[in-house]
Amino acid sequence: MESADTDGASEASYESVASEGGYEPASDRGRDPLPRIISASHCVQVFGRLCNVADGAYCSKDPAYAVNSRAKGKAAARPGRHDPLEGMPPRILRFEGAMEAWLEEMPLTKVPSGTARQYMTLHDASGRKSPGVDLSLLRAGNQRGTIWYFTQEFLQQLWPCFLLSDGTGVQIWERALLERNCTIQSTHVEVGQVNVPSSKEKSRSEWLKALFASMQAAKWTPDGEARSILAKRRLTHASMSIGDAVQIGGQLFVAGLNGFEQLKEAAHLLPPGSFDEDEVVSEPAEDFAEPPVSGKARKKKGKGSAAVAEDNNNTGAERKGKGKGKGKGKGNGKANGKDVGDGARRQAEPEPGVDRADRRKLRAKLQAERERAQTNQ
Hints:
Blueprint: H1 42-47, E1 50-52, E2 58-61, H2 63-71, H3 74-77, E3 91-93, H4 96-103, E4 145-150, H5 152-157, H6 169-179, E5 188-194, H7 204-214, H8 217-220, H9 227-232, E6 245-248, E7 251-255, E8 260-262, H10 266-269, H11 295-312, H12 316-323, H13 328-348, H14 352-376
Antiparallel strand pairs: 1-2, 2-3, 4-5, 4-6, 6-7, 7-8
Protein backbone atom coordinates (compact mmCIF):
# COMPACT_ATOMS: atom_id res chain seq x y z
CA MET A 1 0.00 0.00 0.00
CA GLU A 2 1.47 3.34 -1.13
CA SER A 3 1.70 6.23 1.27
CA ALA A 4 -0.03 9.49 0.50
CA ASP A 5 3.15 11.54 0.14
CA THR A 6 4.73 9.42 -2.60
CA ASP A 7 2.15 10.60 -5.18
CA GLY A 8 2.22 7.17 -6.82
CA ALA A 9 5.88 7.41 -7.97
CA SER A 10 8.84 5.29 -6.90
CA GLU A 11 12.37 6.56 -6.21
CA ALA A 12 13.72 4.73 -9.27
CA SER A 13 11.45 6.65 -11.62
CA TYR A 14 12.01 10.07 -10.05
CA GLU A 15 13.02 12.84 -12.50
CA SER A 16 14.02 16.35 -11.62
CA VAL A 17 11.74 19.27 -12.40
CA ALA A 18 12.36 22.88 -13.39
CA SER A 19 12.24 24.08 -9.79
CA GLU A 20 15.19 21.83 -8.98
CA GLY A 21 17.48 23.07 -11.72
CA GLY A 22 15.84 21.93 -14.94
CA TYR A 23 14.37 18.80 -16.48
CA GLU A 24 16.72 15.93 -17.30
CA PRO A 25 15.74 12.29 -17.81
CA ALA A 26 17.07 10.04 -15.09
CA SER A 27 18.61 7.74 -17.72
CA ASP A 28 20.87 10.56 -18.93
CA ARG A 29 22.10 11.89 -15.61
CA GLY A 30 25.75 11.32 -14.79
CA ARG A 31 26.84 10.76 -18.43
CA ASP A 32 29.35 13.00 -20.19
CA PRO A 33 27.81 14.15 -23.50
CA LEU A 34 31.18 15.03 -25.04
CA PRO A 35 32.75 12.45 -27.38
CA ARG A 36 35.72 10.52 -26.11
CA ILE A 37 38.26 8.15 -27.65
CA ILE A 38 38.38 4.78 -25.88
CA SER A 39 40.32 1.58 -26.50
CA ALA A 40 37.46 0.22 -28.61
CA SER A 41 37.39 3.26 -30.89
CA HIS A 42 38.00 2.74 -34.58
CA CYS A 43 41.18 4.86 -34.62
CA VAL A 44 42.76 2.83 -31.80
CA GLN A 45 41.89 -0.43 -33.53
CA VAL A 46 43.46 0.82 -36.77
CA PHE A 47 46.62 1.95 -34.97
CA GLY A 48 47.13 -1.50 -33.46
CA ARG A 49 47.22 -3.09 -36.91
CA LEU A 50 49.75 -0.78 -38.56
CA CYS A 51 53.53 -0.68 -38.83
CA ASN A 52 55.85 2.08 -40.03
CA VAL A 53 57.41 1.97 -43.49
CA ALA A 54 60.96 2.88 -44.43
CA ASP A 55 60.36 6.47 -45.57
CA GLY A 56 59.53 7.54 -42.00
CA ALA A 57 56.32 9.41 -42.85
CA TYR A 58 53.86 6.63 -43.68
CA CYS A 59 52.60 3.40 -42.17
CA SER A 60 50.91 0.36 -43.66
CA LYS A 61 49.19 -2.84 -42.62
CA ASP A 62 51.31 -4.91 -40.27
CA PRO A 63 52.29 -8.20 -41.97
CA ALA A 64 52.30 -9.93 -38.59
CA TYR A 65 48.65 -9.08 -38.15
CA ALA A 66 47.83 -10.68 -41.52
CA VAL A 67 49.77 -13.84 -40.57
CA ASN A 68 48.01 -14.10 -37.23
CA SER A 69 44.65 -13.70 -38.94
CA ARG A 70 45.39 -16.56 -41.35
CA ALA A 71 46.61 -18.71 -38.50
CA LYS A 72 43.22 -18.54 -36.84
CA GLY A 73 41.79 -20.58 -39.72
CA LYS A 74 38.02 -20.78 -39.79
CA ALA A 75 37.67 -18.09 -37.14
CA ALA A 76 39.46 -15.60 -39.38
CA ALA A 77 37.37 -16.55 -42.43
CA ARG A 78 34.07 -16.31 -40.58
CA PRO A 79 31.63 -14.09 -42.56
CA GLY A 80 31.00 -10.72 -41.02
CA ARG A 81 34.34 -10.55 -39.20
CA HIS A 82 35.20 -6.88 -38.75
CA ASP A 83 38.46 -5.57 -40.21
CA PRO A 84 39.24 -1.99 -39.06
CA LEU A 85 41.51 -1.51 -42.10
CA GLU A 86 38.77 -2.36 -44.60
CA GLY A 87 38.43 0.45 -47.15
CA MET A 88 41.59 2.20 -45.94
CA PRO A 89 44.34 3.12 -48.43
CA PRO A 90 47.41 0.84 -48.49
CA ARG A 91 49.54 3.60 -46.94
CA ILE A 92 48.47 6.37 -44.57
CA LEU A 93 50.38 9.07 -42.72
CA ARG A 94 51.62 8.15 -39.27
CA PHE A 95 49.60 9.20 -36.23
CA GLU A 96 51.64 8.17 -33.20
CA GLY A 97 51.19 11.78 -32.06
CA ALA A 98 47.44 11.29 -31.76
CA MET A 99 47.99 8.18 -29.67
CA GLU A 100 50.45 10.08 -27.46
CA ALA A 101 47.76 12.70 -26.84
CA TRP A 102 45.13 10.03 -26.18
CA LEU A 103 47.34 8.16 -23.69
CA GLU A 104 48.51 11.48 -22.20
CA GLU A 105 52.10 10.29 -22.06
CA MET A 106 55.21 10.83 -24.15
CA PRO A 107 57.40 8.02 -25.51
CA LEU A 108 59.95 6.52 -23.11
CA THR A 109 63.39 8.13 -23.18
CA LYS A 110 66.85 6.58 -23.05
CA VAL A 111 68.15 8.87 -20.29
CA PRO A 112 66.83 9.61 -16.78
CA SER A 113 64.15 12.27 -16.64
CA GLY A 114 65.42 15.82 -16.25
CA THR A 115 69.00 15.16 -17.43
CA ALA A 116 68.46 15.85 -21.15
CA ARG A 117 69.34 19.30 -22.47
CA GLN A 118 66.06 21.08 -23.13
CA TYR A 119 65.31 22.76 -26.45
CA MET A 120 64.26 26.39 -26.46
CA THR A 121 63.08 26.37 -30.10
CA LEU A 122 62.83 23.87 -32.94
CA HIS A 123 66.08 25.29 -34.26
CA ASP A 124 67.93 23.65 -31.34
CA ALA A 125 67.03 20.23 -32.75
CA SER A 126 68.37 21.01 -36.25
CA GLY A 127 71.96 20.19 -35.29
CA ARG A 128 71.11 16.74 -33.99
CA LYS A 129 72.16 13.65 -35.95
CA SER A 130 69.41 11.11 -36.44
CA PRO A 131 69.63 8.15 -38.84
CA GLY A 132 67.11 8.10 -41.64
CA VAL A 133 65.96 11.74 -41.44
CA ASP A 134 67.36 15.20 -42.09
CA LEU A 135 66.85 17.28 -38.94
CA SER A 136 68.46 20.30 -40.61
CA LEU A 137 64.95 20.94 -41.96
CA LEU A 138 64.10 22.26 -38.48
CA ARG A 139 66.55 25.17 -38.58
CA ALA A 140 64.96 28.61 -38.24
CA GLY A 141 66.33 30.15 -41.45
CA ASN A 142 63.75 32.42 -43.06
CA GLN A 143 61.05 31.18 -40.62
CA ARG A 144 58.44 31.15 -43.39
CA GLY A 145 57.13 27.75 -42.29
CA THR A 146 54.97 27.48 -39.16
CA ILE A 147 54.12 24.09 -37.63
CA TRP A 148 50.72 23.74 -35.93
CA TYR A 149 49.80 20.86 -33.56
CA PHE A 150 46.18 20.09 -32.67
CA THR A 151 44.79 20.48 -29.16
CA GLN A 152 43.23 17.91 -26.82
CA GLU A 153 39.71 19.17 -27.62
CA PHE A 154 40.34 18.73 -31.33
CA LEU A 155 41.56 15.18 -30.69
CA GLN A 156 38.38 14.12 -28.93
CA GLN A 157 35.82 15.90 -31.07
CA LEU A 158 37.18 16.21 -34.62
CA TRP A 159 40.27 14.07 -35.04
CA PRO A 160 38.47 10.70 -35.47
CA CYS A 161 36.92 12.15 -38.65
CA PHE A 162 40.43 12.34 -40.15
CA LEU A 163 40.56 8.53 -40.16
CA LEU A 164 37.42 8.11 -42.23
CA SER A 165 38.14 5.87 -45.22
CA ASP A 166 36.73 8.44 -47.67
CA GLY A 167 39.33 11.02 -46.55
CA THR A 168 36.80 13.77 -45.80
CA GLY A 169 38.17 14.62 -42.35
CA VAL A 170 40.05 17.72 -43.53
CA GLN A 171 36.93 19.10 -45.24
CA ILE A 172 34.82 18.47 -42.12
CA TRP A 173 37.28 20.41 -39.95
CA GLU A 174 37.63 23.23 -42.49
CA ARG A 175 33.86 23.62 -42.79
CA ALA A 176 33.44 23.64 -38.99
CA LEU A 177 35.88 26.56 -38.66
CA LEU A 178 34.41 28.54 -41.54
CA GLU A 179 30.84 28.18 -40.26
CA ARG A 180 31.88 29.56 -36.86
CA ASN A 181 34.17 32.25 -38.34
CA CYS A 182 37.14 30.80 -36.41
CA THR A 183 40.82 30.48 -37.28
CA ILE A 184 43.21 27.59 -36.84
CA GLN A 185 44.08 28.96 -33.40
CA SER A 186 40.75 27.57 -32.16
CA THR A 187 41.91 23.99 -32.68
CA HIS A 188 45.71 24.12 -33.04
CA VAL A 189 48.74 25.57 -31.26
CA GLU A 190 51.90 26.87 -32.90
CA VAL A 191 54.92 24.65 -32.21
CA GLY A 192 57.59 26.72 -33.94
CA GLN A 193 58.88 28.14 -37.19
CA VAL A 194 61.27 26.54 -39.68
CA ASN A 195 63.08 27.45 -42.86
CA VAL A 196 61.27 26.93 -46.17
CA PRO A 197 63.56 26.34 -49.17
CA SER A 198 63.22 28.94 -51.89
CA SER A 199 65.01 26.96 -54.58
CA LYS A 200 63.67 24.00 -56.53
CA GLU A 201 65.85 21.45 -54.78
CA LYS A 202 62.78 19.63 -53.48
CA SER A 203 59.16 19.73 -54.54
CA ARG A 204 56.66 20.94 -52.03
CA SER A 205 55.21 17.47 -51.39
CA GLU A 206 58.68 15.98 -50.86
CA TRP A 207 59.64 18.75 -48.44
CA LEU A 208 56.43 18.34 -46.43
CA LYS A 209 56.92 14.58 -46.24
CA ALA A 210 60.54 15.01 -45.10
CA LEU A 211 59.48 17.58 -42.49
CA PHE A 212 56.76 15.23 -41.23
CA ALA A 213 59.29 12.40 -40.86
CA SER A 214 61.79 14.61 -39.01
CA MET A 215 59.09 15.75 -36.53
CA GLN A 216 58.53 12.26 -35.12
CA ALA A 217 59.40 12.15 -31.40
CA ALA A 218 61.87 9.29 -31.81
CA LYS A 219 63.85 11.46 -34.24
CA TRP A 220 63.84 15.05 -33.01
CA THR A 221 63.31 14.55 -29.25
CA PRO A 222 64.23 10.95 -28.38
CA ASP A 223 65.37 11.84 -24.85
CA GLY A 224 62.61 14.29 -23.99
CA GLU A 225 64.54 17.40 -25.05
CA ALA A 226 61.31 19.07 -26.22
CA ARG A 227 59.40 18.70 -22.96
CA SER A 228 59.89 22.40 -22.12
CA ILE A 229 58.54 23.48 -25.51
CA LEU A 230 55.55 21.16 -25.23
CA ALA A 231 54.77 22.16 -21.63
CA LYS A 232 55.07 25.88 -22.37
CA ARG A 233 52.56 25.63 -25.23
CA ARG A 234 50.38 23.02 -23.43
CA LEU A 235 50.85 20.54 -26.26
CA THR A 236 49.86 16.94 -25.68
CA HIS A 237 51.97 15.19 -28.31
CA ALA A 238 55.50 15.41 -29.66
CA SER A 239 55.19 13.39 -32.89
CA MET A 240 53.68 15.11 -35.89
CA SER A 241 50.44 13.36 -36.76
CA ILE A 242 47.47 13.25 -39.06
CA GLY A 243 45.50 16.38 -38.17
CA ASP A 244 48.54 18.64 -37.68
CA ALA A 245 49.27 21.44 -40.15
CA VAL A 246 52.10 23.39 -41.79
CA GLN A 247 51.69 27.04 -42.77
CA ILE A 248 53.91 28.44 -45.54
CA GLY A 249 53.34 32.17 -45.81
CA GLY A 250 49.68 32.48 -46.73
CA GLN A 251 49.26 28.80 -47.61
CA LEU A 252 48.03 26.09 -45.25
CA PHE A 253 48.71 22.36 -45.62
CA VAL A 254 46.98 19.85 -43.33
CA ALA A 255 48.13 16.26 -42.80
CA GLY A 256 45.28 14.08 -44.02
CA LEU A 257 44.85 10.35 -44.50
CA ASN A 258 46.88 10.00 -47.71
CA GLY A 259 49.18 13.01 -47.34
CA PHE A 260 49.16 16.78 -46.99
CA GLU A 261 46.18 18.66 -48.42
CA GLN A 262 46.28 22.34 -49.33
CA LEU A 263 43.27 24.34 -48.15
CA LYS A 264 41.72 26.78 -50.60
CA GLU A 265 40.28 28.93 -47.80
CA ALA A 266 43.63 29.37 -46.03
CA ALA A 267 43.28 33.17 -45.96
CA HIS A 268 40.16 32.82 -43.76
CA LEU A 269 41.65 30.14 -41.48
CA LEU A 270 45.06 31.66 -40.72
CA PRO A 271 45.48 34.20 -37.89
CA PRO A 272 45.29 37.83 -39.09
CA GLY A 273 48.73 39.35 -39.50
CA SER A 274 50.51 35.99 -39.68
CA PHE A 275 51.09 36.25 -43.43
CA ASP A 276 51.36 38.72 -46.28
CA GLU A 277 48.07 38.77 -48.18
CA ASP A 278 49.98 39.11 -51.45
CA GLU A 279 51.55 35.69 -50.82
CA VAL A 280 48.27 33.75 -50.88
CA VAL A 281 48.27 31.38 -53.85
CA SER A 282 45.01 29.60 -54.61
CA GLU A 283 46.45 27.16 -57.15
CA PRO A 284 49.14 24.76 -55.89
CA ALA A 285 52.57 25.12 -57.49
CA GLU A 286 54.73 22.12 -58.28
CA ASP A 287 57.81 23.60 -56.63
CA PHE A 288 58.51 26.29 -54.10
CA ALA A 289 58.90 29.80 -55.46
CA GLU A 290 59.70 32.89 -53.42
CA PRO A 291 57.83 35.10 -53.45
CA PRO A 292 54.70 33.60 -55.07
CA VAL A 293 53.03 35.75 -57.71
CA SER A 294 49.83 37.13 -56.24
CA GLY A 295 46.67 38.24 -57.98
CA LYS A 296 47.59 41.90 -57.51
CA ALA A 297 51.02 41.34 -59.01
CA ARG A 298 49.54 39.54 -62.02
CA LYS A 299 47.09 42.43 -62.52
CA LYS A 300 49.88 45.00 -62.41
CA LYS A 301 51.91 42.90 -64.81
CA GLY A 302 48.97 42.79 -67.20
CA LYS A 303 48.62 46.57 -67.10
CA GLY A 304 52.29 46.95 -67.92
CA SER A 305 52.03 44.67 -70.94
CA ALA A 306 48.97 46.53 -72.20
CA ALA A 307 50.80 49.84 -71.84
CA VAL A 308 53.76 48.54 -73.88
CA ALA A 309 51.37 47.34 -76.59
CA GLU A 310 49.78 50.80 -76.68
CA ASP A 311 53.20 52.40 -77.13
CA ASN A 312 54.00 49.98 -79.93
CA ASN A 313 50.88 51.19 -81.78
CA ASN A 314 51.99 54.82 -81.70
CA THR A 315 53.99 56.63 -84.39
CA GLY A 316 56.35 54.91 -86.79
CA ALA A 317 59.35 56.63 -85.23
CA GLU A 318 58.45 55.14 -81.83
CA ARG A 319 58.07 51.64 -83.29
CA LYS A 320 61.37 52.05 -85.09
CA GLY A 321 63.10 53.18 -81.90
CA LYS A 322 61.71 50.28 -79.82
CA GLY A 323 62.32 47.67 -82.46
CA LYS A 324 66.03 48.33 -83.04
CA GLY A 325 68.56 47.35 -80.43
CA LYS A 326 71.26 49.82 -81.45
CA GLY A 327 71.82 52.77 -83.74
CA LYS A 328 70.21 56.08 -84.56
CA GLY A 329 66.69 54.75 -84.43
CA LYS A 330 67.21 53.83 -80.82
CA GLY A 331 67.80 57.43 -79.87
CA ASN A 332 64.63 58.71 -81.55
CA GLY A 333 62.50 55.95 -80.14
CA LYS A 334 63.88 56.43 -76.67
CA ALA A 335 63.21 60.14 -76.72
CA ASN A 336 59.74 59.99 -78.20
CA GLY A 337 58.36 56.73 -76.87
CA LYS A 338 60.14 55.46 -73.80
CA ASP A 339 61.20 58.66 -72.04
CA VAL A 340 57.87 60.41 -72.60
CA GLY A 341 55.29 57.63 -72.59
CA ASP A 342 56.88 55.27 -70.04
CA GLY A 343 58.22 58.14 -67.94
CA ALA A 344 54.78 59.65 -67.48
CA ARG A 345 53.37 56.22 -66.71
CA ARG A 346 55.99 55.62 -64.01
CA GLN A 347 54.89 58.79 -62.29
CA ALA A 348 51.26 57.73 -62.50
CA GLU A 349 51.71 54.23 -61.04
CA PRO A 350 54.64 52.45 -59.26
CA GLU A 351 56.49 49.59 -60.87
CA PRO A 352 55.36 46.10 -59.83
CA GLY A 353 58.86 45.29 -58.57
CA VAL A 354 58.91 48.12 -56.04
CA ASP A 355 56.39 46.51 -53.65
CA ARG A 356 58.18 43.18 -53.88
CA ALA A 357 61.54 44.80 -53.08
CA ASP A 358 60.05 46.57 -50.07
CA ARG A 359 58.61 43.30 -48.78
CA ARG A 360 61.98 41.60 -49.13
CA LYS A 361 63.66 44.40 -47.17
CA LEU A 362 61.02 44.10 -44.46
CA ARG A 363 61.48 40.32 -44.25
CA ALA A 364 65.27 40.74 -44.03
CA LYS A 365 64.83 43.28 -41.22
CA LEU A 366 62.45 41.03 -39.30
CA GLN A 367 64.77 38.07 -39.77
CA ALA A 368 67.71 40.07 -38.39
CA GLU A 369 65.67 41.06 -35.34
CA ARG A 370 64.63 37.44 -34.74
CA GLU A 371 68.24 36.25 -34.96
CA ARG A 372 69.33 38.90 -32.48
CA ALA A 373 66.55 37.85 -30.11
CA GLN A 374 67.61 34.21 -30.35
CA THR A 375 71.24 35.16 -29.72
CA ASN A 376 70.26 37.13 -26.61
CA GLN A 377 68.37 34.09 -25.28
